[in-house]
Amino acid sequence: MAVYVYSVVAADHPLRLNGLDGVGNPPSKLRTVRDGDLVAVVSDTSGELRPKRRDLGAHQAVQERLMADGTVLPLQFGLTAPDDDAVREALAARNEEYTRRLADLEGCAEYHIKASQEEAALLRRILLESDDARALNDRIIGGDRDPELPLALGEMIMREVQRRQDAMAAAAVDALSPFAREVRGSPPTGQDFLNASFLVGQDDEERFLSAEKGLSADLGEGVDLRLRGPLPPYSFV
Amino acid sequence: MTVVPQGGDSLARGGGGGGGTGGLYDILELILDRGLVIDVFVRVSLVGIEILKIDARVVVASVDTYLRFAEACNRLDLETGRKAPSKLTDVVGEVTEGGAHGKSKGALTGAVEAFTESLQHGSDDREEEQESAVRRERASHRSARRREE
Fold this sequence. Notes:
The complex is a heterodimer.
Chain A: E1 3-10, E2 30-35, E3 38-44, H1 53-69, E4 73-74, E5 79-81, H2 84-93, H3 95-104, E6 108-117, H4 119-129, H5 131-141, H6 148-176, E7 182-185, E8 192-201, H7 205-219, E9 223-231
Antiparallel strand pairs in A: 1-3, 1-4, 1-5, 2-3, 6-8, 6-9, 7-8
Helix pairs in contact in A: 4-5, 5-6, 6-7
Chain B: E1 2-3, H1 7-12, H2 28-33, E2 42-43, H3 49-54, H4 63-75, H5 86-98, H6 100-105, H7 107-120, H8 124-148
Helix pairs in contact in B: 7-8
């Protein structure tokens, strides 16, 4: 039977998995597969899996439980090995690499931050600050039917929205980076303009969090900053 | 701003994981796209996962986008800081939702939001419904793409 693999930890990890369920319906039973000084947390699976709330939550809960007692290398959701031997072989094949990563990540957690901005507030500010944009807007509202006007206004606004949001995203990363060992940004999704992960050591955690609070105040009203963490270091394994 | 002081608590509560996962959506891409990949392992086929990856925020420099921004500006009432008279706003709002706004936001965002609902509140029964909703959204996104091309 195929095995679903959650995490890799050092063999001296306490592995308190009691009370946690694995992925699947009915929930699978968590167990471990050991090779030398590394342990993989696994459960048996029929192979069929969907990215459901329950299964994503189960995957995540295992990482967080392990993280509470030590360092964890969280696997990407959905990875399965044909059997326990294949897991042991995989651990043995990359033993050095995984051991080094576990050492590198000791005492660190990932913080993930996203930000979005209320559009009306941003547009209002742009119009108030840009005479050109306001003049175009006034002509349109005043009844000028020239079809070029909305295009010109829209292009101007779009460029300004991007410029401002790019600047805010850069400022946010600059403000938080001094307290992070590593930073990993990625393209924002949906309505967000910022999407970045920070690897933060225990010693810097307080300063990182207070920098984030300051940032939230600096960005001002209409900007919604969402901080998630401490998380298992998904982005830094 | 929301700070989750212990990322684990919200998820681990209830013992089974996945309960009260308001923050799970924001880290979905981490769980799905990041994390250690062991190349000899197989990734099980995951219905719905690819749509989450495509949900990149793409503000396309297009006539539609320009018009949407222009309309949004025209609707603002700069004097009072409020929106323009509600009658007009309602009408324009509806048109915009159905037209340029809906398109530039992307049908996918809607799909992911539907999916998120299931992550945040859904029972497993509802998840089945959400999955079919996601499929419908994907179909409509494809046709939207064709229209743009």
